[in-house]
Amino acid sequence: MKSRQSWAELYSFEVDRAAEAPVFRQIYLQVRSAILSGTLRPATKLPSTRELATKLGISRSAVVSAFEQLLAEGYTFGKKGAGTYIASDLPEPFEAMAGRRKRPASSAKTAASFRGFGGLVDVTEQSDERPFNLGRTLIDARTAELWRKLSARTLRSHGRHLLGYGDPRGLPELRKSVCDYLHAARGVRCEPDQILITAGTQQAVDIVTRVMQGPDKEVWVEDPGYPLTRLALVAAGAKVRPVPVDQLGINVTEGVRRAPKARAVFITPSHQFPRGIALSMARRLELLAWAREQGAWIIEDDYASEFRYGGRPLASLQGLDEAERVIYIGTLNKALFPGLRLGYAVVPPSLVRPFVTARYLMDRQPSTLCQVVVAAFMEEGHFAAHIRRMREAYRNQRDALVTALRRRLGDHLSVDPPDQGMHLVAYTRKGLSDVKIEQAARDHGVIVRAMSRLYIEAPAQSALMFGFSGYPHQIIAPAVTRLARAFER
User: Whole-prediction pTM value?
Assistant: First the structure.
């Protein structure tokens, strides 16, 4: 038949014995490519495996393996006693289709919408390990050894309950340990049944947006505030109303003026991100009264409460709540290490069922093995000891950073050591641009965050954010020296 392709062209195909791909794979890929491009048309007869092996100077077994793969994937079919043929039911060659048809407008529009969503967040910036990136932790030798032993013990026990489906709320043992810890350390009033184990505060925020049904998702956020919370709310279709933050914390009166009927407020009251201030008691009571009267929810993000360097940690906002309007969220990823991916939400009894349902629909349950290790780590007293050691280490790292900044950059930056948290804020002098400093610092191997980027509508202040918790004492001063060169530039 004239429409059938002569096999003369196939004989020019080459097999590279020095290539990493096996010979049979090379044959398979070349024949498949010829089929998909239309060089080999449907119903074309292939040569026998013996003939092709002879022409290419290879073993027949390699050709047989290639033909078997093509047959298994539906590119070819065999006729008993007649040979192997290109399948007749394949679609039109891809190159011809692409050359003749344009991408549908709806597809282009959908792709554009995905690109817009992907542009919200730089997903690579958090993985940068250079000082002084934010959110870093350290694990000392004692914690590392205990973690190895508990992990090995958990794997040795290998109980069936560790390998099957679990409670979407989290293991009862871990929820009880978290409950006891929050009672003692944060003054949170709850029972284990109110606790939901999450992958961290970000997933807890996501669950809130899913539970908060309806088109009127109007919410307050701090200005400036944590950008990932705001972007998660935007992605969920919420109407975000920025509320300015002053020296007393979020301005509740201004929030009521801007959005009196908002359904929720997302807040970091114990250590405001990024400024590091604590919400005053007067503002706390004012916020609770507004939530009670409006029937709104307060999402209290207590992301770094463990690390307070001047006295006991501040009591939680949830502990003052008599009307059950506070959803308290926290993370073990900051207290231990980010790769753990475990946190928790303490929800009012009326919200437990919808929260558990949303958690189940998202990813069913948290990792059972990790939960068992963390529960043992907490129950046996290692967690409290780890926090004490890390608090002392982070205090020393904070002080080393403050000393180095004042010595090398005192003319350019105003810095005071924070009482809590894992980062500090240094305000620029002489009208310097924090954005330009951030860019120049990268060229010198230092990561500092421009705080002005985190403002939405409030007048931005030029300041730099330094994470100090994840960087050993000995690398802090050299990194500040490199940063000083960036200022000179």
Answer: 0.78
